[in-house]
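stuck on this one:
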Amino acid sequence: MPYPENLRHVARIVVVNPDGSILFHRRPADELYGANQLSLIGGKFDPTDLTRKHAAQRELREELGLKNKIPEFLLFFSQQSGDWFTHAFILLLDKQFDLNQLPQHDEFSEVMAIKPDQIEQYFAEMAFDHAQIVQAYLQLMER
């Protein structure tokens, strides 16, 4: 692995619809960490993940049910926070994601698409370092 093995790794994907809205899910109320908070799509690396990209692709399939070939996406930064190492990706969808076509699972209670001009009002509800990731994405898009 080309990244520190002594840390726990997580992939976070800023999934962007053609209208610019970003997909989030709300964590379940009974979640040990980040209960009821908004999270970007993604999660912990799995022992089967050979690369950062593989981990991100697996999470996209699990959480959004993307079964077809996942469009190319970009790793835009990696950072350490305590015992965690976050790998943040950007995925620009070529068509609007249908929120009614989600797979059944208990990882989140709802999925929502938030427009960039409304996103700041949700920063306080975001879990972990997700607000920081979204801010980095928005700054990148302003260039």
Q: What stands out?
A: The mean pLDDT is 89. Residues 70 and 125 are 28 Å apart (CA to CA).
